[in-house]
């Protein structure tokens, strides 16, 4: 039941019913997003806009690309991911996949991260359809962002085949509608240490995989402290240096067996200008020199599991400067979490992050987006569309 003035004002926009529909699709990354993406494709078709689906290899997931206006250079991309993080084990007040409005907020999984922006972008499509656009408004909706910015890579390959170049992209992750100009990059690896199992009473005859992993983990912590001491701090970030740490570990099978298998996951969240490859090379070198004796029989394998670059937007870029007139720059202007913006920038498309809601609400039970944030996003996007008519 909507009673307050704020609720009534928000209801006047098409964003709210769209957001309710989008939240209704359970697009946790392990599931297919096709139900949602095909619904959006049909919604665009009803507006007379033909959207292209860029499908993954399995055919169970897809990105959506759509354009309104002339197919020329200088357009603006509105970008959002359609997947959400799981709700497993979280205590929600109401069904996470059924949008509910309470106290001026809209609750549901993905309300701020980031179906709120996808809904607002879809709502503005109707305005754009009726506006005399001189440059295009593009829509880029991806899958599998939450598991390492996977889907958008195929979308970027597809963009490369198009005969026009957009001026920039707005990635609508939750920033409380402030313009964010930078974020860290991330690399993560899974390290498998294979040793040799014997009865633990005969320990010297075995190769202890857990001890090998422990030495490596301690070295990673040591390198982390050194990187922190030596990195030029970037005070634009709340954590102003590169972080390196082990996040998961497992190994061994019984109290009386020399363990022949250990596995751990470690990650590096690096400043945009720090080279994570050089950090990884140090870990590799330590492995080669210090674990060499063990390696005569032990095997150490590194598998990269996440890799996305940081974002360092140029405030003097024409697109970035123009967008900054419609919203204020966040203080600090950079965020610790990663987004697809770094990948757009690496593909040569100027990128910034700006979207409704707060990252503090993301990934939690009772995730919400404030209705006045959605309204602020509607206003911002109306200005974006307006800027494409001149
Ligand atoms: C699993 C993983 O690497 N997730 C990425 C995805 C970025 C989400 N915005 C991360 O933790 O940064």
UniProtKB/TrEMBL annotation:
Per the UniProt entry, the signal peptide is none
Keyword annotations for this protein, in alphabetical order, are: Cobalt, Hydrolase, Metal-binding
Q: Name one GO biological process term.
A: L-arginine biosynthetic process
MF annotations from Gene Ontology: acetylornithine deacetylase activity; metal ion binding
> Which domain of life does this protein belong to?
Bacteria
Chain ranges of the Peptidase M20 dimerisation domain: 182-291
Query: What CDD domains would the database entry show?
Result: M20_ArgE (cd03894)
The record's section on Gene3D superfamilies has: 3.30.70.360, Zn peptidases (3.40.630.10)
Task: Tell me the protein's name.
Answer: Acetylornithine deacetylase
Source organism (scientific name): Elstera cyanobacteriorum
Which taxonomic lineage does the organism of this UniProt entry have? Bacteria, Pseudomonadati, Pseudomonadota, Alphaproteobacteria, Rhodospirillales
The coding gene here is: argE
């Amino acid at each position: 039941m909507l009673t307050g003035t704020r609720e009534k004002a928000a209801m006047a926009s098409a964003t709210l019913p769209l957001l309710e529909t989008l939240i209704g699709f359970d697009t946790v990354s392990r599931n297919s997003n096709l139900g949602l993406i095909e619904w959006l494709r049909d919604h665009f078709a009803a507006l007379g806009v033909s959207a292209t689906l860029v499908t993954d290899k399995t055919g169970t997931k897809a990105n959506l690309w759509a354009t309104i206006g002339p197919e020329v250079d200088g357009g603006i991309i509105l970008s959002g991911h359609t997947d959400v993080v799981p709700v497993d084990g979280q205590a929600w007040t109401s069904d996470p996949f059924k949008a509910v409005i309470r106290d001026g907020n809209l609750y549901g999984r993905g309300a701020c991260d980031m179906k709120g922006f996808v809904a607002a972008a879809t709502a503005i499509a109707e305005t754009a359809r009726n506006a005399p656009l001189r440059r295009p408004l593009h829509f880029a909706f991806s899958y599998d962002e939450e598991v390492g910015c996977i889907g958008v890579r195929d979308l970027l390959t597809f963009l490369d085949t198009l005969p026009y170049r957009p001026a920039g992209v707005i990635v609508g992750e939750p920033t409380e509608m402030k313009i964010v100009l930078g974020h860290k990059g991330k690399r993560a690896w899974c390290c498998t240490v294979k040793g040799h199992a014997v009865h633990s009473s005969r320990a010297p005859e075995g190769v202890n995989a857990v001890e090998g992993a422990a030495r490596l983990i301690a070295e990673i912590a040591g390198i982390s402290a050194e990187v922190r001491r030596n990195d030029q701090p970037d005070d634009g970030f709340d954590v102003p240096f590169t972080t390196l740490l082990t996040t998961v570990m497992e190994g061994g099978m019984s109290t009386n067996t020399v363990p022949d298998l250990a596995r751990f996951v470690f990650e590096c969240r690096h400043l945009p200008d720090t080279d994570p490859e050089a950090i990884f090379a140090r870990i590799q070198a330590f492995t080669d020199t210090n674990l060499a004796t063990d390696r005569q029989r032990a095997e150490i394998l590194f598998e990269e599991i996440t890799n996305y670059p940081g974002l360092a937007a140029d405030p003097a870029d024409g697109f970035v400067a123009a967008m900054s007139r419609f919203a204020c720059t966040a203080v600090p202007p950079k965020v610790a979490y990663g987004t697809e913006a770094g990948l757009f920038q690496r593909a040569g498309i100027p990128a910034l992050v700006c979207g409704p809601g707060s990252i503090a609400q993301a990934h939690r039970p009772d995730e919400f987006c404030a209705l006045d944030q959605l309204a602020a996003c509607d206003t911002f996007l109306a200005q974006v569309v307006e800027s494409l008519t001149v």
